[in-house]
């Protein structure tokens, strides 16, 4: 069978007897090939043709018996070259090291100069992996199969690059969710995440590829889902990390939690970040707004998802984050949300909102509190803390005392939303210290201290020492702001309830909690149960109202709502 030239000017040569090196010798046992910059000849079978997306093919031989060296290599070949998967070739070319993004790692490649057919022989078998290998470099370019034990960790890069993040042995946890920043334990989590992480890619270097080749139509993807019989080629490019260029459709075992969680206790309190609920001018116009929905149609879709979510939680009180800060009058965001909740519940619709008069604060987004008038009664007026760092940075907290029925024990609900981790304008103590806590950590710590001091002064005037801090603290469970509040006596509701591995947010393939419920000692004694409804964090962005808008509560926000049950 005649094969065309590998590149311009290269012709099929008459059979000759060059020194054919095992591919393992060309790869070597280190990151860089000992033959870099030199011309070599190899023989191997074509295991994958990825010229359309990556500009080359993967070739693998029968092996050199050395487990420290890879038996495969990526070969740059023109699209005009006639070849097919499974064919054995003799290839002469120059060994090059292709930089893997901005990292110091590289992919060993061969720039083909001459290609000849080689004697056919049995195809190399795919290496079966049951756990993360100790040395990915020794598998670079090789075909592997992972029957099970692989978990979908994240899908942040799916629409942009056709890429998923997977992990051996379960989810990848945000290091500062499970270990204190800067501690040896945190370093161990980071190392373990790096060891277990594996990218799954579509063999295409283009951005926004549209349809992803390895995903079946209407595939349900959720972080935490189990992946079966994953097949592909080990590759190292783009970001320096190892990835599989998939060669077979991805098989995913994923299920959505259909029912909202149920918690024991006669008093139920929820918290939910609405992800920028804005409603234009409140009359169907005024779009696009500063944040959130860009059209009235999108806003209607967003609202439908939020109403389904909040209504299904069956809470008596709910603390809300990321509401448009546009007052409390008719047509305001909070007024429209409550009206829609009541309309959806018909004769049982008795939601009310806490009216702080203005704000709280002058940030474009604010916190809010809503409640069921037939279940609880507000005691006195709401209180707000409008002192820096609350205002320009952290959103102003809102506190309201309630009682359930006439004989219920009073309690205070405090809605919170601390400064985010983004680094715009951050400097000094608020700059990123590369300890996993991001920017503005000092501001969040100061927010935590001031919040605690404020609450010790009974700002609602209710006299109640039973309080629950709810909201998006923009800090994971073992970061300084939460540890500061813990040290001041505020107890993690999920720890008190014995919930194992709670989470509410998935970012860059890492799972953790930015959303917390922290209890005073008296409120902790009344706690009966705690749960999160995992309808959002595990879902892809495109499931939301600005994408495919899947019916139901799915991806109603980027945060999961939480629900607590207490003795009244």
Compose a concise summary of this entry:
Residues 295-559 form the Endonuclease/exonuclease/phosphatase domain. It is built from eleven helices and 28 strands.
Write the layout of secondary structure elements.
Layout: H1 23-27, E1 39-50, H2 51-54, E2 56-60, E3 72-76, E4 88-99, E5 106-117, E6 127-128, E7 143-146, E8 150-154, H3 158-161, E9 164-168, H4 175-178, H5 184-196, E10 197-201, E11 226-228, E12 230-236, E13 242-246, E14 251-253, E15 267-277, H6 296-313, E16 317-324, H7 333-345, E17 351-353, E18 365-372, E19 376-384, E20 395-404, E21 411-417, H8 441-456, E22 467-472, H9 480-487, E23 491-492, H10 493-496, E24 505-507, E25 510-512, E26 515-519, H11 521-526, E27 527-532, E28 562-566
List keywords for this structure.
OB fold (Dihydrolipoamide Acetyltransferase, E2P); Deoxyribonuclease I, Chain A; six-stranded mixed β-sheet; 11 helices; 28 strands; elongated
